[in-house]
Amino acid sequence: MSNLFSARKEKRAWDAAVEGIVAEEKKVDEVQCKACGKTLIKSEVVKNKYVCYECGAYFRVKTKNRLKMVLDPQSFEEWFEDEHGTNPLDFPGYVEKLDEAREKTGLKEAVTVGRGKIYNEDVVIGVCDARFMMSSMGHAVGEKIALAVERATELRLPVILFCCSGGARMQEGIISLMQMAKTSAALKRHSQAGLLYIPVLTDPTTGGVTASFAMLGDIILAEPKALIGFAGARVIEQTIGQKLPEGFQRAEFQLEHGFVDAIVERKNLKKTLYEILRMHHVEGYAKFAPATEVDGRPTELMRERASKAKELNAWDKVKMARKVDRLSAEDYIDSIFTKFMEFHGDRYFRDDPAIVGGIAYLDGQPVTVIGVQKGRDMKDCMRHNYGMPSPEGYRKALRLMKQAEKFHRPVITFVNTSGAFCGMEAEEGGQGEAIARNLYEMSGLTVPVLTFMIGEGGSGGALGLAVGNEVYMMENATYSVLSPEGFASILWKDGKRAKEAAGVMKITAKDLLELGVIEEIIPEYGGADSAALSSIADYMHKLIRSFLERQEGKSGEQIARERYERFRKY
């Protein structure tokens, strides 16, 4: 009996031990999301790119895991791995703190740099790791980044930096501050060499890193909800006693305020980076993919529609140009180009939804595309401020045009605006200066610029995007010094005479072709509506290809000179 009791006791002990092991293994494979508080299966979180599969919150990522997620397998070659932090101020306890961080993370410093491939595209890459003293920027961090950027410049390679930092490393004092200037200077040289730099802002990116290499990219990407800012929320609240709104300094806030080009989900990041890299190593103005010649001829239905369309007078064309359901800039962009990647913000104040812009392909050739987006219905019109750009809209457009010039991309603009926004905030933001700056800078761009007037071309607000080498105009579009209503009010003191004014102002495509203000009239096949989109887009597509082929072989100076001479004749 005692033997049986002993056996049962041993079995219970064994079962308890097994349960303990299972529980411990289960615990190892569990992780808690700090955002929603739920316990998650760690292996599933890893499969989900370290994103909580319950609430979508982003976990911070170790360096080796970040490199695995964005680089091709076994493609990473680490550089300057022996560069590590010292104690320039002989700060008490700092050496011990560095040693502790190295032991904990297995890293020698807070940033890892080197060379790798993204879908076989060569890049220089750097990854900041928050586990190492919150990835604060000391001498070694600044030195490794500067060295990597300098080598990238020598090798003529693009640079991608995954930014993450709590700011300057206090233990290194003024030496830490100097890293801001050093890294920025290295990036300036890289940019002057015509090379691409993409910072990816992760959580958190703050302090001196934000005020240096994190915000100097040609294209700035961010992960969702990443904290991005110069002074932290706690510092702001404690310093000036100001209560900050929900979502302040998050990636979405920075996108709205013009400092981030795009927020990219982690699952799409490698593909997005690859597409950006591809778009930035093709030079020339007529490098089209073969066998994609567009017919450009209208269908029988469109020819029938065009034949039935009655001849419109100037006022009728004003009304046609103002129709809410008229085809928009986005309609043409989506139909003519492929893989349009929209970029946001003027990097000063805000992202203006009245201006859409980014990079796309025309038969395999990268082009910069910018348009005034009026809207597709009343709700959409409100969201885009009825196509009336603010100063930040013109500055966003100019930023994209200067980027196009740096990377030798043609610029295609689509204009449809009743005029620049004339609100108080627009004047406070320098509306006149913003338009003037565009005219000034566009006149000297060393890449081809082609403008399509697709609806209303209202005054300087339209001209701010229309300093092109050639300007084409839809048959029912208008282009004028100001609206017929404004013209009648100023000259005749009677805004009701707008219809009469439209007839004498010479604002139609036919008038402007005769005046030499435009080079081409684009047929609308009975109306620039959804039914005619395909035919109009094909026609435009062929015109763009022909235009770019005519620019092939011209120097940048010749392209700018021809644009100057075009406007000099008026």
Question: What's this entry about, in short?
Answer:
Helices cover about 45% and strands about 15% of the residues. It is α/β, with parallel strands linked by helices and about 575 residues long. The strands form 3 sheets. Strands 3, 4, 5, 6, 7, 8, 9 and 10 form an 8-stranded mixed beta sheet that branches. Strands 11, 12, 13, 14, 15, 16, 17 and 18 form an 8-stranded mixed beta sheet that branches. A two-stranded antiparallel sheet has the order 1-2.
Secondary structure elements and their pairing?
Elements: H1 2-28, E1 30-32, E2 39-41, H2 42-47, H3 63-70, E3 77-79, H4 94-105, E4 111-118, E5 121-128, H5 139-155, E6 159-165, H6 173-192, E7 197-206, H7 207-210, E8 221-222, E9 228-229, H8 233-240, H9 251-256, E10 262-263, H10 266-279, H11 300-308, H12 314-321, H13 329-336, E11 338-342, E12 355-362, E13 365-372, H14 378-383, H15 391-406, E14 411-417, H16 424-428, H17 431-442, E15 449-458, H18 459-463, E16 470-474, E17 478-480, H19 484-492, H20 498-504, H21 509-515, E18 520-522, H22 533-551, H23 556-568
Parallel strand pairs: 5-6, 6-7, 7-8, 7-9, 8-10, 13-14, 14-15, 15-16, 15-17, 16-18
Antiparallel strand pairs: 1-2, 3-4, 4-5, 11-12, 12-13
Helix pairs in contact: 5-6, 13-22, 15-17, 19-20
Distance between the termini: 115 Å
Low-confidence stretches: 21-25
- The count of DSSP E runs of length 2 or more, i.e. the number of strands, is 18
Average residue pLDDT? 91
Helix content: 40-55%
Using the alpha-carbon principal axes, give the shape: elongated
Number of helices: 23
Largest sheet: 8 strands, mixed
- What structural class results from the helix and strand content? alpha/beta
Oligomer: single chain
β-strand percent reads 15-25%
Q: Over all CA atoms, what is the radius of gyration? A: 29 Å
